Each structure stands twice: as C-alpha cells, then as structure tokens.
Amino acid sequence: MSAKTIEHPFYPIIFVRGYAVSQAAVEDTVADPYMVFNIGSTKLRQLLTGIVEQHYFESPLVRLMKDFGYRDVYEGGDEMPPGHAIVSKSVFIYRYYD
Prior knowledge:
Elements: E1 13-17, H1 23-31, E2 42-46, E3 52-56, H2 60-68, E4 71-72, E5 90-95
C-alpha cells in the first residue's frame, strides 16, 4: 500500500444516488435495480430525412470515469474491503435507500 494515495488534482468522489421526495418516488427508486441511473439515457430522434437515430447520453459520472480514469470501489459486487487503499480516482456510490 502506497503511503501517498491521494494526489492533486484528482480526489475521490462520493456520489449520493437515490434520494427522492415523495413516498411514490421512493418506491419507484428502490424498485429500479439501477437506482434511476438509466432514466433518460437513451433518446430516439427523427431526422428531417425521416431516418430515426438512437442517441445515448452518457451521464457525467460515466464520462468522468472514461475521460479521467476514475474507478468505482466495488469488486465482484462487494464494497471495498476494510484497509484497502483509497486512491485519488476512486468513486464511491452511496445508494440512499440501501
């Protein structure tokens, strides 16, 4: 384990996902296995020519991971084990209702 794992300009990110206001929204959120990560991510658009194109909107979290090499702290479906080094480009996803 490296003595210095957090280095400027990159810092770990804690992403809080799943908070909903109404009881109905809470129930919808926890019923979705992706905790609403997938809503609004794919759109169909019809061009002036009549051709329909599908467009995928990458979330800011996905772009951050791809563009800057961030990684989540899960492995094999488990959370990061205790004592594991936290590196600068770590993403912690906290699911509010888990």
